[in-house]
Prior knowledge:
The complex is a heterodimer of chains A (221) and B (174).
Chain A: E1 20-21, H1 25-31, H2 33-40, E2 49-57, E3 62-67, H3 70-78, E4 99-100, H4 110-119, E5 125-133, E6 136-144, H5 151-157, H6 159-180, H7 195-201, E7 205-209, E8 212-216
Parallel strand pairs in A: 1-3
Antiparallel strand pairs in A: 2-3, 2-6, 4-5, 5-6, 7-8
Chain B: H1 7-25, H2 39-46, H3 50-58, H4 65-74, H5 79-84, H6 104-114, H7 117-120, H8 124-139, H9 145-164, H10 170-173
Helix pairs in contact in B: 2-3, 6-9
Amino acid sequence: MTIELSVHKEQGVEPKAQQKQHPDILNILYDNRFHIKNKFSSVIGFYEINHISITIIDPSNETIVFSTTPNIEYHLITKDLWKHDLTISPHAHRNNELIWWDMDDINPHFNQIDNIKKQRNNYTLGMSLARKIDGFCIIYSFATKSDEANLKSYYISNIDRLYDIGDHCYKSIRDIYSSYCRHHTAPRIIDFTNFDATIKSKPYLQLVVNNSYLKGNVNYE
Amino acid sequence: MKDMTSERGHFVQGFSRRLTQLMQDEGMGSVRSKAGVKIKELAEISNCSHQMARRYVLGDALPDVNVTFKIAKWLKVSPGWLLFGEESKIPNNINKKDLIQIEPDLLEYILIESAPLFLVTKDLHELIYFIIDIINDTTHIEADKKDILKIVDLSINSVMRFNEKPNDNRALSA
Lengths: 221, 174
């Protein structure tokens, strides 16, 4: 069965310079939803993470996204806000640097984007980080519903673990992504940390921040 | 003539009182209207005539389940409370995190379309969580009904696509 979801773009608005969407971006988002849920759910809960999405921009600047909470991407795309969202722009990212979803509050579209991504899904904090490899930019986005204090410090200190989680998720969808990546070969990410084993063994640690507990998995360094 | 002693009469009047009270609390009271509230706004949200909305407020008629749901969502209470609740205990749970509110006909569509999946799933709990996920995500989507139904169809088909894969070792192959 073929079902087409159309993107209704505002007239007269130019897309983000160079970056463009895959023509089937919405169908791809939902066509693989169960696979994404199945694979990504194994890491949901680690480090208080409730949402994961992977935005992949290939060397031709074509964008595809996979998400555990596809209503976010659906609205960003159909409302034509994706091009105003700094957190999924490759130009805003550098390796080993977190971009907080609430960082770009001078953006005139900030309130709309924040509502779509964070507020209506009851997330308290969202962040993105990128891995640039072989001309691709792979952006991992995470969000949490935790209301613990000092979450930003917590995630900054665990940025490597966020990469591990993102890499694990990317590997689980690489074949699917390859089937949509028409002009390039999807990059492979070498896994040094063996996060799969970590997930299977489900080690568990409670971190104490200001005398309150933050749940997370064990630091396996 | 209304039969106030009948069970239905009591039920409809109760609905009317709660509806009126909530609309007034939300700043939609009207001194010019016999009903005491702005009928026009109720008619708009209920997608019905002015006359029919007036009958809801005056306790002459009860909306069907879909309209009741819309009114309840609009007034930020549960449909159950609007129909059966006690006026002295207005619930404040509609904005509670993770509370799922969905229109009955959409829920019915999702459940009917999902039914065949129960025959092919290898993991019942995983499927149920996925269906809950569809329901939850769908309630957050602002789109016309046609697009929402397409999204539901695509999401449900994704289970079939996943199950059709002969050997799912993707995580190991990368």
